[in-house]
């Protein structure tokens, strides 16, 4: 995956790179497993959050959704053991 930094200015090229990185991350979900994928997703969203003018409530909703997935994944792991 392309190495991303939140220090770069947001340009059309940068948006394209971030979009490609997001798509690659989604494709890796099955390979990574939910726990590792959620960590990488949080890292990716932190970078996007630094560049975005989106409403912070959108990100709060996203974070809550990821937390729910993590909780469900953890409970499934425990019951699978």
Task: Note down, in words, how this protein is organized.
The chain has 81 residues and is mainly alpha-helical. The protein has helices spanning 12-32, 34-51, 56-80. It has a domain at 34-81. It is 79% helix and 0% strand. Helix 1 packs antiparallel against helix 2 and helix 2 packs antiparallel against helix 3 (56-80).
Integer-rounded radius of gyration:
14 Å
Mean pLDDT: 67
User: In whole angstroms, how far apart are the ends?
Assistant: 32 Å
Q: Outline the low-pLDDT stretches.
A: none
Largest sheet: none
Q: Order of SSEs, N→C?
A: HHH
Approximate helicity band: over 70%
Principal-axes shape call: flat
How much strand? under 5%
Which structural class is indicated by helix and strand composition?
mainly alpha
Tally of DSSP β-strands? 0
Q: What is the number of helical segments per DSSP (H or I, 4+ residues)?
A: 3
